[in-house]
Design brief:
alpha/beta
């Protein structure tokens, strides 16, 4: 009896110890998950901000109207709108305002309307269907393109390929970006697609963009702007991991506007 009672007590102690270890382990794991989640949210909510001077220049351009709304940035021609629009997703952790400077000269040349929406936690990964809900801000537009910079472009391509949503997207505008293989765009003959890479892009090199070129329709326009780096597709300052550009920001935006406008104006 004594031996049995002792063994029973030892077993119960081991059981309680195992429960305590399990509870402690779960508490530590939960804490680590919460810390990681908090760090991620803080990281995502600290985006690259628009540089004040390029943004101010875009806002003062008499050929365009730049409006900051509750859902993003709307850039429209001051006169003679073309009836074509582009919804453009920012790159990861880049605020929408940072693309006013690079899109304003395109709008001035073409008369297109551009919407750069704010994205959930500044990540297209979490908001790839955002374009569906913002087109109502420009009811005068009859033809819409979807596009984006870097990760924004990849998830724009993914959304167009999915066929989810009600907007009949006419095509894609990809800046320093690519279409994932799963987007299933290679055989789409109903889309006009532009892909622009920067020759000095240290985040997504022209060769990496070219490797993914087969994921786009065969007649997609693929352009490389020599001397342009990744951050120059917007106006938000230097980006970690990027290469030094060989063009000034003004030269890069001029070259980008020329290529993009030619695509949007083609018959």
């Amino acid at each position: 009896m004594t031996d049995g009672s002792t063994a029973g007590r030892r077993g119960r102690r081991r059981g309680r110890r195992a429960v305590r270890v399990l509870v402690w382990t779960l508490a530590v794991c939960t804490t680590l998950v919460l810390v990681a989640a908090t760090a991620f949210v803080v990281w995502a909510l600290n985006p690259y901000r628009a540089e004040p001077e390029p943004l101010a220049l875009a806002e003062r351009d008499p050929a365009v109207v730049v409006e900051r709304g509750s859902d993003g940035v709307l850039i429209t021609p001051a006169e003679h709108p073309s009836g074509t629009g582009v919804v453009f997703y920012p790159g990861a952790r880049v605020e929408a305002d940072a693309y006013a400077a690079s899109w304003a000269p395109v709008v001035a040349r073409t008369g297109v309307t551009v919407i750069v929406p704010d994205l959930r936690l500044n990540l297209a990964l979490l908001d790839s269907a955002r374009g569906e809900s913002v087109v109502g801000a420009a009811p005068e537009v009859s033809e819409w393109y979807l596009g984006g910079h870097s990760m924004g472009g990849a998830f724009a391509a993914q959304h167009v390929g999915s066929g989810d949503g009600d907007v009949p997207w006419a095509g894609l505008v990809l800046w320093a970006s690519y279409a994932p293989e799963g987007a299933d765009l290679a055989d789409r003959d109903d889309l006009d697609v532009l892909s622009v890479a920067g020759g000095r892009d240290g985040i997504l090199s022209p060769s990496e963009v070219a490797e993914r070129r087969p994921h786009l329709p065969g007649d997609a326009d693929a352009e490389v702007i020599e001397g342009m780096n990744h951050a120059q597709f917007g106006a938000y300052g230097a980006q970690s991991g990027d290469a030094e550009p060989e063009l000034t920001d003004a030269q890069a935006h001029e070259a980008l506007a020329e290529v993009t406008a030619a695509f949007l104006l083609r018959d």
